[in-house]
Amino acid sequence: MKRADSTSSGIPPGRDRGRLPQGLRIFLCILGIFFLSDFSRAEEYSFNLEEIDKKPYHLGGYAEIHPILLWPDDDAAFYRLKYYDIDAGSPIKRYDLTLQLEGSYEKDASRIFARVNSSLQHDDDGWSDETVLYEGYFSHKPSAFLILEAGKKNLKWGKGYAWNPVAFVDRPKDPDDPDLNLEGFFMGSADYTRSFQRSLKTVSLTLALVPVYGDLNDDFGEQDHLNAAVKLYLLWRDTDIDFMALAGESKPQRYGMDFSRNLFSNLEIHGELAWIRDFEKSVMNASGTLIQEDEDVWSALLGLRYLSAIETTYFLEYYHNGTGFTEQEMNDFFAFVEKGYERFISSGDAAPLRKAGNLAEGRYGRPNPMKNYLYARISQKEPLDILYFTPAITGILNLEDRSYSISPELLYTGVTNFEMRLKGTVLAGDRFSEYGEKQNDYRLEFRIRYFF
Minimal CA–CA distance to 193: which of 163, 242, 225, 232? Predict the structure, then answer.
């Protein structure tokens, strides 16, 4: 049965249910200020030569409203892990509000950059909010060849669009929305670049030091270690090539390479290859026993990007996730969840479900936790001469269990500084398959962003 007390709805006792949370009121006030300032600028026009000079500072960002409807699958493993003791109803409603601010200041050879993401969410658990520094670093260029940086940042290693197995010091992308900005890690880095008039046109060497101490990068890996990452970039004729490595005790050592090349002016090929030594993987069998496995693993990606004469863009990527679970390993996890749910129904004992839920918050519940995937995306710019309109469709296929997701979307940018996107997602698969055991069967979302 659905919880009826005020605590389960996320509203503390004594709070007026008709009153908006303080975080939401602050968000709406900030959004209103940006709207009013934008309209006032539109009413005043003046020409000033100083305005066209490059300013040493930049301020910008966006505000986003993102309502979501989810149609749950109450027989699925991930639904039962979250809602085993309540009726979530259908559809499940969620509201995401985001304010992302970024700014930079440059003086001579130095630059400071910061990006902060504030989010406010309402779902069946009530209201929650979080403010995170995505990036914040100091950059100095003592010579034309050398750049020194320190702070929190993304290195953005890899050539793939939906996945990047060689992004050793970055957080993983969400393949359902790979263009989103991501939170970085604190590090110190140096980039040295030289260019030549020969077949080898450019050489660049990047060295990054990533400390993991206390609260500093505490989710990067094992505590109390200093890790070193290095990347060598080569522009050989018309091919971009990278070689990279990560050494240290916080994560297993890993080595990789990637490449990107335009075969024709409208056809690009890219790939990545990563090798991880002594990767530690915890696997649950059908009886709930955790088995620790250590082995060397390979991950790889191969992709194509094609732009047609009528401006249709095609993305196609194959991804082998060497750190992922096999079909049998995922079947064992789903079987344990099913047995745990049956035990809860018969006896009220939720301990097995809580145990599985803890694992689902880790590697079992991450996007694309299995071995082999195919990603395809087709987008058409301004079909039928409809200006500022771009429809697209994206599909992700699990090549092992044949489950899949399909996401059509409509994007419109015809209003100045606004972006509006309507997106639907269908998840389908057999029993005990990845997408067949997802929490939801369908998803519908609308996103409106205001850029400033």
Answer: 232
CA of 128: how far to CAs of 15, 24, 123, 125, 131, in Å?
Answer: 15, 10, 9, 8, 11
Mean pLDDT of 139-147: 96
Residue with token string 């599909």: 395
Strand partners of residue 153: 185
The three-class DSSP label of residue 29 is helix
Q: Token pair of 230, please? A: 């290095």
Q: What is the DSSP letter of 435?
A: G
Q: What pLDDT score does 53 carry? A: 67
DSSP E strands in 321-402: the ranges are 372-380, 389-398
Q: What are the C-alpha distances in Å from 163 to residues 33, 279, 287, 343?
A: 37, 19, 32, 38
**Out of 46-50, 225-229, 261-265, 270-274, least confident range:** 46-50
What letters, b where the CB count within 10 A reaches 16 and e where it falls short, cover 203-212? ebebebebbb
Q: Are strands 239-247 and 267-284 parallel, antiparallel or unpaired?
A: unpaired
Q: What are 392's strand-pairing partners?
A: 379, 409
| DSSP label at residue 55 | P
Nearest-CA neighbor of 288 among 359, 342, 369? Answer: 359
Predicted TM-score of the model (pTM): 0.85
Q: Residue 256: which of 160, 346, 327 has the closest Cα? A: 160
User: Which residues does residue 448 pair with via DSSP β-bridges, in sequence order?
Assistant: 65, 420
What is the DSSP annotation of 201-267? EEEEEEEEEEEEBTTBTTTTSSSSEEEEEEEEEEEETTEEEEEEEEESSSS--EEEEEEEEEEETTE
Run of H or E including 306: strand 290-307
Residue 242: name the closest of 257, 230, 228, 229 by CA. 257
